[in-house]
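From the pipeline queue, job 12 of 40. The input is one protein chain; the requested action is below.

Action: predict structure.
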Amino acid sequence: MKYPVVAKLNEERIQNLVETVNEIGFTSEGLIKEPALFGILPVTLKYRYKVLIECGIENVSPMLVATYLTLLRQRSIEELKTSQILPQHINVENRLAGYMTQWPTSLTTLINEDVNKSTLFTLRLKIIQRYLELVLDLTKEEFYRGISTYPTTKHRPLAYINESLKILQSQIAIPNHKIKSNLYLLHADPENLKNIIYNFKNIGGIDIKEVIRMHPKLAVKNCQTLLDIRKVLEEYNISNEAQRRCFDIYTLGPETVRERLEKAKSTPEFSMFFTHPRFLKMIHYNKTAMKRLGKLYANNKKCLSLNILSGSSAHYEVFEKAPGDRLEKNHYFTGNGIWAEERNKNIETVQLKNSNNNM
């Protein structure tokens, strides 16, 4: 079989692909005529179609999408015009730059070379680099280091990069230096970002825009996934306070969260922490917590706390190496359902009452 990937596709994947193909204006027959498209993820297919449109190709066919990488990387703009894939009259540089809306008005020239000798891939990359240099003060070295780490940025539609940046800067108010140090934010889908802001709204009562400023990774999470995680947490009666103390729980998948919560309920050493405000940290760092629990029990250390099970490695190592069964009197769980700090408080209350009675 020339395209073995077709045999590996399940019904859901085929359905998603057909929906995407129809969404961009292709027919199902076009998909069959270009079976190479079956090997492309639906979102990648949509982006490639959008990029070709941005470049000025007027009649984007399934065949052109299937040969996208060849068109962009191996054929010059001059060759594409000669073969009539690109219209002769089009100024590709100006067209591409037009999708970015925050250029300084004083800027007159972007590329100081013959654009027609360049490939679409190279031209797009130079425009993205120049734009981010002006908008984010991103150096050329930082840019190329960033796309080396996040290579799919090179194939994002320019309009998406532009709109996502505007939302991140204007609506969410993420500082430029934070966007520079987290260039994966360029992958954020603008429509998904809007959904997060207007439909997801908050975590534990904290405005989602504020949360994203602290935890930028959430900007690239699918909004529906975030809603599904919230639903799981509500099912298990996880408090808003617990969510506020562990925003990173939303970086996991909903089924992962459910599985870990269910496992915690059936693990006595974990279930006793279920209502504790820092409980979700143990769910987030589940593998670490389980590993530490096993090692500590093997060493006959049974007065455990969330600080020990899900805290820093340094804190854990001090506890593991320390003699005895506790690190600090106010930071361990006695195993009988009473927190040490609560027990101490109760003791102090009783002592105070006894003292008053003896007066």
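Job complete. The chain has 23 helices and two strands.
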